[in-house]
């Protein structure tokens, strides 16, 4: 387990390190949860890392669970919104699948911290995180609407997307755009896209990403 030394903040400040106290708290929690571990991180440690008083955390959040919930939802809600936007477009489902996969993989890979690694926390089975579980399930349903064939294909596509979480644990992903595009290629292949059709699907998907 990696040990993270707290910032030397002297007397705690009321404004945090960037002037956006709420954002500072979320950033600090993301770092500590993914390095020290969720159970080993206290609200005091989060506040200290953010350059704030501990009381400031409770001004914005009910507790550590609320901080975790917001961080987790930020890994899913943008992709759900993207799926809704793509659903309204008059393009083939395979192109939508490529674009959604590319967006989702880039989201999971693009942040400063590997928040997807927190999906395996046992605490997420509690009622407090029911909304996150429902949002994640809704995202999988959105993938399913774009995949033709047996349900196992949906499982495999969704597993490929979230598999980038494990990749990030092994090594840093420096070229996120290239990695996300390659991941989207893999997803549509699993969904049944013919190799001859892949360049056209990729090109159309990229146009939707711009």
UniProtKB/TrEMBL annotation:
GO molecular function: DNA-binding transcription factor activity; transcription cis-regulatory region binding
Lineage: Bacteria, Bacillati, Actinomycetota, Actinomycetes, Pseudonocardiales
Residue intervals of the HTH tetR-type domain: 19-79
Name of protein: TetR/AcrR family transcriptional regulator
Biological source species: Lentzea tibetensis
InterPro entries, sorted: Homeodomain-like_sf, HTH-type_TetR-like_transc_reg, HTH_TetR
Residue ranges of the annotated DNA-binding region, renumbered to this chain: 42-61
Transcription as UniProt keyword: yes
Region feature Disordered, mapped onto this chain: 1-20
The keyword Transcription is assigned to this record: yes
Keywords (A to Z) from UniProt: DNA-binding, Transcription, Transcription regulation
């Amino acid at each position: 387990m990696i040990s993270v030394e707290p910032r030397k903040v002297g007397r705690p400040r009321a404004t945090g390190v960037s002037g956006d106290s709420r954002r500072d708290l979320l950033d600090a929690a993301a770092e500590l949860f993914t390095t020290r571990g969720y159970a080993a991180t206290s609200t005091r440690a989060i506040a200290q890392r953010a350059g704030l008083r501990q009381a400031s955390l409770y001004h914005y959040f009910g507790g550590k669970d609320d901080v975790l919930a917001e961080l987790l939802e930020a890994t899913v809600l943008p992709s759900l919104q993207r799926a809704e936007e793509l659903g309204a477009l008059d393009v083939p489902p395979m192109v939508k699948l490529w674009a959604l996969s590319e967006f989702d993989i880039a989201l999971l890979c693009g942040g400063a911290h590997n928040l997807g690694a927190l999906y395996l926390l046992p605490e997420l089975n509690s009622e407090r995180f029911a909304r996150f579980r429902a949002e994640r399930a809704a995202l999988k349903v959105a993938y399913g609407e774009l995949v033709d064939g047996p349900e196992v294909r949906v499982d495999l596509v969704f597993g490929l997307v979230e598999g980038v979480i494990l990749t990030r644990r092994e090594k840093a992903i420096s070229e996120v755009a290239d990695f996300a595009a390659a991941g989207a290629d893999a997803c549509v292949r699993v969904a049944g896209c013919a190799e001859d059709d892949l360049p056209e699907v990729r090109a159309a998907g990229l146009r939707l990403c711009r």
